[in-house]
């Protein structure tokens, strides 16, 4: 803790609480001193403070001490009164205004804001200096109050000029009580002030003879010691040039005269004389005078108030007085009252720095005033107590308590105590500051704020600085109080101060996410700057708040309205680099350009590059040539120096997709959205890099501004739109280069409301996000926007029509691919690849001529089918257009395509067409045209088949077809069912009329119908099949009529689509000859007229593949024999011969063994377990019976292993197998065999001849093992075959 | 129910991640920014105070005229700040505790990035319901 006297507060107290000297002077004295440009008071003032007076002082105690520094305050008698509030206020206001102007011009010249980093430095570096002056003035305003004694004049200096007539009587006149200040007259101050008489002689008026004569007269009249002579203006001509003019620092405030002229007629002797005079006055008169008075008063006080007796008396006396005066100010005390005298004693002691004495007296009087309810006096005493405690540097708590008490008491007095409260507060604050309690000081500042708005503004601002200085510095509080202060400044029209405070606050709030705060500060600064006419700065601040999505709609309108108004006032097109309205979603940025890749549809450009790459992989020559080394091929593709930048072609637009978002609730008009580009004729990379750096150095806006100048080398598109509240719009912008060279897209510019231009530089945004995956990732982000413009090359335009956007599953159509080449150069070597051959296949040139549904019909004249030749194309490889195909000029090149909606759902079809340039001089040798279409396929018919073998004939099957119409409204006509393959013959079991009475299948309707399927090539191998004539494999499901012909499923599109369906539906292995494929052809019912489908399908095909006919394994057999037989059992038993036909439908030789079982009687019983077993092992489909197990005691184990040894006597077999018990044979692939069987029957009855087991085995080959479904061996229980034998008569 | 009450959740980086005016008083145009100013300034006090106590509820830490700022600091130094003009200490404490629970539930959401703005409407309705209940 430093010495209290050295603190700012201590200094202030030592200056402000000092003895007052009342000055009375005649006009001629003033006249003489005015020659120097000074009043007489001002002439004396510099010599009233003594730095080393070194006077011994002895107050109440016997121990003397020495004073070193001392100061006197001089006042004219007329000024010894309460200062005029209005004048003081005006003066303060002027000071503030001036300071405002000054600070403002400073702050405008250098933009650097207050850096709160150096808040550690001392207070006075940060706070404006005029604060101190202002505070001093505020303290002074409260002086000469009647409740305090330190403003009482200690001595009266009466000055008369030697020029005056009758100087002696003038001295008396001057101290005429009528002219004395009211405070002395009305009894608040002691009017008996000791006087000192001064004769002033102007040396310019002549020699001092007369003066010395008057002095002797004076001495005789007033006493020798009280009179003195002062000679001034001794310097005749040459004004003295003292280095440090003593008056300069005192007068600068108001005087208009230059300080050099001050005291120009006073020479060194004069100055020394004045100095001696004042020192004399202080040391010989004032201090001893005060000492004397202190001693005197102290004696009085001791006599009346000290001691136990006096205290009791005082208490009793006061209590009695209590009822009387009850006014707010309490009783009035004149200077003679003991209370006033104690106060005087205390104040004098304070001024002479006998703080102990002062404190004891203040304490004494404080309780009295409190009891008397003299609140103002009480507060004044408390205040002094606080200061005394401070100066004694003891009991901080007490000091603060006293100050707070005083402050609160003053405040309680209302307007009466306001000024005193301010003064008290300021002292309190200084006290807190001296102890580094800035935070508390700030709260006191806050409390000082009274009704006077201007003062509270200043106080709030000072409070904010206190927060800044507190440790740790409270920046947020600092900002908040600055804003509060700014508000107050604004209220009293101190706009410049308001701006200053807000600007300082901005340093705290900059970059804050507290949105309302940010908006408030920026908006008001903007508004205020605008009111000062500084529109440029205003606009800068206003742009900060445009994207205020959190504000209410009215606020948004207000902000935007004000902003536009300000912009309008600037009177020019305003250009802003970071306009926040509308918000640009930089991550949505997408650059689409066409180098060797061209896009036929906009959606194609939005498709992943990887997808196209994989599609085009086989087509592009470079890839197929050197697939192993992609590095090399890159450099081959484009010359090395260009490989860094992207390539675009003259006349072909580079498009940029950008999302604009309006964060506001109000709609904003956006116009003139264009790309900002830079063109340079050179394609050299090095050069362009240099340009690059120079552009970086330039002001961005400049470059953005002059973009229109070189528009000859490129052309940019211009978009206008209205962005509604909260809307997000994707904008497509394009730039079309017109000359070779290099082009760089710098950013985007737009016009908001037609007045303000915003820019957005792409590079400055988020470079990481701008990834256009066309190139390698190691490219610099800037490279994405750099293009090498090469000369014009052909570009194909292609389209497919009429591709339906929405269709039903199975829809089959013929489409046309149309290619155009607007340029004059031909293109050649066309290739094409399609992503989904299931949906889209390439037709043949001659298909162009044929009419669509008709060409699918079976021709009456048998034409050799060229289907098999076609199948070569149907691999996954690239389709090559015929040699010599060249597209050029206006005539479009047409090529047929077949479309079939294979599966329901949304499908994206991609196709890529490769072509090479006619002339080889171009940088780009080839290009690809990418087309992308979306097709929505709705479910139509759900088709399922079920095949079960016939029990009557080998190689005949029963097919059940279930068709369900899955649509919601459409009706279909199921037209034709075809089996694919040459050896399957299909025929209807019922007439078509009975199946479809209404000829159509309504929405949601399901139907089943049955067919027989016959394998017509039972003994032929696959190779032979081809040469045979086709068998009848198509069944029409509609009644015969002349115009409808059967569709040829071997026609090219159907066959090819079927091929892909087969690949898709593949479940089994190649070479299984027992599978059958079906094609169901349906048509929409004629009467349909659905407005939702402008282009209804004509033909729909449904393909179902790989239905296996071999449901019980590859071996099928049939027992052939008589059904009913007559025999005379009386003659002999009956012997019956049967035949078994076995057919091997597999592709390999099968080994078959037939075992007959003679457990005859069990024929009806033993089947239970075995049948179940056979059913499971054989995957038997279709109908079979499961007899419940009757004999639970018979375990399956016994029956399985020893079927022949289990016959019980009571159930003797009713027949026995009489032929060979076991027959083994080999059956070749696709061939049948016949074995004889024989049974013996002993009595008439009906017999079930299922009592045999057929084992088969196929040679296992290695590759087939992996197939789980395929069986290599099996065991089949015999079929039920009933034979009835009757007794013949 | 308090006439004026403004509830803000401030993340550890001093960014407001949730704001709600939960008072019943008619909303004045400039009240939002004043509330933000007061709460923002109160952060200075909280910053000092939070380390002096182990309690999460710091009671009222700051005042501006009639408006009092009560603060609750979570373990992760997220601050719940309530600006209010009512004197209902217990209610405020319960309010904070319940909001803390809600906040933790939000934190448990794997899609919520701690320190980002809480946009959940469920959270908002719950907080407002709590405000009606306790304040």
UniProtKB/TrEMBL annotation, chain A:
SUPFAM superfamilies, sorted: TPR-like
Please name the InterPro entries in this protein's record: Ig_TPPC8_1st (IPR058541), Ig_TPPC8_2nd (IPR058538), Ig_TPPC8_C (IPR057651), TPR-like_helical_dom_sf (IPR011990), TRAPP_III_complex_Trs85 (IPR024420)
Which cellular components does GO assign to this protein?
A: TRAPPIII protein complex
Identify the residues that the record assigns to the TPPC8 second Ig-like domain, covering every copy: 810-929
Q: Where is the TPPC8 first Ig-like domain?
A: 608-755
* Domain TPPC8 C-terminal Ig-like, chain residue ranges per copy: 1122-1251
List the PANTHER family hit by this protein, alphabetically: TRAFFICKING PROTEIN PARTICLE COMPLEX SUBUNIT 8, TRANSPORT PROTEIN TRAPP
Record protein name field: Trafficking protein particle complex subunit 8
What organism is listed for this UniProt entry?
A: Glycine max (Soybean)
Automatic annotation (TrEMBL), chain B:
Q: Name one Pfam family in it.
A: Sedlin_N
Return the InterPro entries for the record: Longin-like_dom_sf, Sedlin
Might you name a Gene Ontology BP term for this protein?
A: endoplasmic reticulum to Golgi vesicle-mediated transport
A Gene Ontology term for the protein's cellular component: nucleus
* Name of protein: Trafficking protein particle complex subunit
Instruction: Give the species this sequence originates from.
Output: Glycine max
Name of the coding gene: LOC100781378
């Amino acid at each position: 803790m430093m010495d209290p006297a050295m603190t700012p507060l201590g200094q202030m107290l030592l200056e402000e609480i000092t003895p007052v000297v009342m000055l009375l002077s005649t006009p001629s004295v003033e006249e003489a001193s005015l020659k120097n440009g000074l009043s007489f008071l001002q002439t004396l003032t510099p010599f009233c403070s003594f730095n080393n007076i070194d006077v011994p002082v002895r107050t109440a105690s016997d121990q003397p001490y020495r004073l070193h520094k001392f100061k006197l305050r001089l006042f004219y008698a007329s000024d010894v009164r309460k200062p005029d509030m209005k004048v003081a206020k005006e003066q303060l206001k002027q000071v503030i205004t001036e300071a405002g102007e000054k600070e403002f011009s400073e702050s405008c010249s250098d933009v650097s804001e207050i850096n709160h980093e150096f808040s550690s430095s001392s207070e006075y570096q940060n706070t404006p200096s005029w604060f101190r002056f202002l505070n001093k003035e505020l303290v002074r305003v409260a002086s000469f109050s009647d409740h305090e004694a330190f403003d009482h004049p200690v001595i009266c200096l009466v000055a008369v000029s030697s020029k005056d007539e009758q100087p002696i009587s003038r001295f008396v006149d001057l101290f005429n009580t009528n002219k004395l200040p009211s405070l002395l007259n009305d009894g608040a101050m002691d009017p008996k002030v000791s006087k000192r008489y001064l004769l002033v002689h102007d040396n310019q008026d002549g020699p001092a003879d007369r003066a010395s004569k008057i002095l002797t007269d004076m001495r005789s009249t007033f006493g020798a010691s009280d009179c003195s002579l002062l000679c001034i203006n001794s310097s005749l001509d040459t004004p003295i040039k003292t280095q440090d003019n003593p008056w300069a620092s005192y007068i600068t405030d108001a005087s208009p005269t230059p300080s050099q002229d001050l005291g120009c007629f006073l020479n060194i002797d004069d100055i020394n004389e004045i100095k001696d005079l004042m020192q004399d006055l202080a040391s010989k008169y004032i201090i001893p005078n005060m000492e004397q008075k202190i001693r005197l008063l102290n004696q009085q006080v001791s006599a009346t108030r000290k001691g136990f007796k006096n205290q009791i008396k005082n208490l009793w006396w006061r209590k009695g007085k209590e009822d009387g005066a009850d006014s707010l100010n309490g009783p009035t005390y004149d200077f003679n009252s003991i209370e006033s005298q104690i106060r005087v004693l205390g104040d004098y002691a304070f001024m002479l720095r006998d703080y102990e004495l002062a404190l004891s007296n203040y304490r004494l009087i404080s309780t009295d005033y409190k009891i008397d309810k003299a609140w103002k006096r009480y507060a004044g005493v408390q205040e002094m107590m606080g200061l005394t405690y401070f100066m004694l540097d003891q009991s901080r708590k007490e000091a603060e308590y006293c100050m707070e008490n005083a402050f609160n008491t003053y405040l309680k007095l209302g307007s009466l105590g306001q000024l005193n409260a301010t003064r008290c507060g300021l002292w309190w604050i200084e006290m807190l500051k001296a102890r580094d309690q800035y935070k508390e000081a700030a709260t006191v500042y806050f409390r000082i704020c009274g009704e006077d708005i201007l003062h509270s503004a200043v106080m709030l601002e000072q409070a904010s600085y206190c927060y800044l200085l507190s440790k740790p510095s409270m920046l947020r509080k600092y900002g908040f109080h600055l804003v509060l202060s700014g508000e107050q400044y604004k209220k009293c029209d101190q706009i410049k101060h308001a701006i200053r405070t807000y600007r300082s606050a901005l340093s705290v709030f900059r970059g804050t996410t507290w949105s309302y705060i940010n908006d408030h500060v920026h908006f008001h600064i903007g508004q205020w700057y605008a009111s000062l006419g500084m529109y440029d700065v205003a606009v800068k601040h206003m742009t900060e708040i445009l994207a205020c999505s959190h504000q209410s709609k009215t606020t948004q309108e207000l902000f935007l309205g004000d902003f536009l108004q300000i912009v309008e006032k600037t009177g020019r097109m305003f250009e802003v680099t970071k306009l926040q309205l509308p918000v640009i979603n930089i991550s949505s940025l997408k650059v689409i350009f066409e180098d060797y890749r061209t896009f036929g549809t906009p959606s194609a450009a939005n498709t992943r590059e990887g997808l196209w790459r994989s599609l085009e992989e086989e087509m592009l020559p470079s890839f197929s040539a050197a697939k192993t080394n992609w590095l090399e091929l890159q450099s081959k593709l484009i010359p090395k120096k260009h490989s860094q930048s992207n390539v675009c072609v003259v006349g072909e637009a580079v498009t940029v997709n950008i999302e604009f978002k309006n964060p506001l609730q109000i709609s904003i008009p956006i116009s003139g959205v264009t790309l900002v580009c830079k063109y340079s004729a050179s394609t050299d990379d090095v050069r362009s890099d240099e340009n690059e750096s120079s552009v970086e150095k330039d002001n961005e806006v400049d470059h953005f501004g002059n973009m229109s100048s070189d528009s000859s080398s490129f052309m940019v598109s211009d978009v206008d739109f209205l962005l509604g509240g909260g809307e997000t719009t994707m904008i497509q912008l394009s730039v079309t280069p017109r000359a070779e060279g290099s082009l760089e897209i710098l950013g985007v510019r737009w016009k908001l409301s037609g007045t303000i231009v915003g820019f957005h530089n792409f590079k400055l945004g988020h470079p990481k996000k701008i990834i256009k995956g066309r190139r390698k990732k190691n490219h610099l982000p800037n490279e994405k926007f750099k293009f090498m413009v090469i000369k014009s090359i052909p570009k194909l335009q292609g389209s497919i029509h009429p591709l339906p956007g929405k269709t039903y599953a199975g829809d089959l159509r013929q489409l046309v691919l149309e290619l155009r080449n607007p340029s004059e150069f031909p293109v050649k070597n066309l290739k094409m690849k399609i992503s989904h051959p299931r949906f889209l296949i390439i037709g043949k040139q001659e298909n162009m001529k044929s009419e669509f549904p008709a060409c699918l019909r079976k021709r009456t004249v048998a034409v050799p089918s060229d289907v098999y030749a076609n199948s070569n194309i149907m691999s996954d490889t690239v389709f090559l257009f015929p040699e010599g195909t060249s597209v050029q000029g206006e005539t479009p090149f047409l090529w047929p395509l077949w479309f079939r909606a294979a599966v329901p759902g949304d499908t994206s079809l991609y196709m890529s067409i490769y072509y090479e340039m006619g002339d080889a001089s171009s940088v780009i040798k080839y290009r690809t045209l990418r087309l992308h279409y979306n097709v929505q396929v709705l479910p139509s018919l759900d088709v399922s088949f079920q095949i079960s073998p016939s029990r009557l004939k080998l190689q005949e099957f029963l097919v059940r077809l279930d068709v369900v119409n899955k649509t919601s409204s459409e009706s279909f006509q199921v037209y034709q069912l075809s089996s694919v393959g040459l050896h399957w013959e299909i025929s209807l079991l019922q007439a078509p009329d009975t199946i479809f009475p209404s000829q159509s299948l309504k929405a949601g309707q399901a139907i089943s119908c049955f067919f027989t399927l016959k394998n017509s090539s039972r003994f032929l191998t696959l190779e032979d099949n081809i040469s045979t004539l086709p068998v009848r494999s198509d069944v029409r499901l509609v009644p015969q009529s002349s115009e409808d012909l059967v569709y040829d499923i071997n026609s090219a599109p159907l066959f090819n689509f079927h091929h892909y369906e087969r690949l898709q539906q593949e479940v089994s292995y190649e070479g299984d000859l027992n599978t059958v494929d079906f094609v169901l052809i349906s048509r929409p019912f004629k009467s349909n007229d659905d407005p939702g489908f402008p282009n209804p399908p004509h033909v729909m095909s449904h393909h179902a593949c790989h239905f296996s006919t071999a449901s019980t394994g590859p071996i099928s057999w049939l027992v052939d024999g008589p059904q009913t037989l007559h025999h005379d059992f009386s003659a002999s038993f009956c012997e019956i011969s049967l035949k078994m036909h076995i057919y091997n439908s597999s592709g390999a030789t099968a080994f078959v063994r037939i075992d007959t079982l003679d457990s005859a009687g069990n024929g009806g019983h033993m089947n239970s377990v075995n049948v179940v077993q056979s059913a499971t092992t054989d995957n038997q489909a279709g109908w079979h019976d499961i007899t419940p197990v009757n004999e639970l005691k018979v375990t399956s184990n016994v029956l399985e292993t020893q079927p022949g040894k289990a016959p019980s006597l009571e159930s003797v077999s009713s027949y026995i197998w009489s032929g060979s018990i076991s027959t083994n044979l080999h059956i070749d692939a696709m061939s049948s065999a016949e074995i004889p069987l024989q049974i013996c029957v002993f009595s008439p009855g009906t017999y079930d001849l299922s009592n045999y087991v057929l084992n088969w085995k196929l040679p296992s080959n290695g590759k087939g093992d992996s197939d789980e479904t395929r069986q290599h061996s099996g065991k089949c229980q015999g079929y039920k075959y009933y034979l009835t034998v009757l007794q013949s008569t | 129910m308090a006439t004026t009450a403004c509830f803000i959740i401030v993340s550890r980086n001093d960014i407001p991640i949730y704001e709600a005016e939960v008072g019943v008083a008619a909303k004045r145009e400039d009240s939002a920014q004043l509330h933000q100013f007061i709460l923002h300034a109160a952060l200075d006090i909280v910053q000092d105070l939070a380390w002096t106590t182990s309690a999460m509820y710091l009671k009222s830490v700051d005042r501006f005229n009639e408006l009092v700022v009560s603060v609750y600091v979570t373990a992760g130094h997220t601050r719940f700040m309530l600006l209010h003009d009512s004197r209902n200490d217990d209610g405020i404490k319960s309010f904070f505790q319940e909001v803390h629970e809600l906040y933790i539930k939000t934190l448990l959401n794997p899609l919520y990035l701690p320190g980002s703005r809480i946009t959940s409407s469920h959270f908002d309705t719950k907080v407002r319901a709590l405000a009606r209940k306790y304040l």
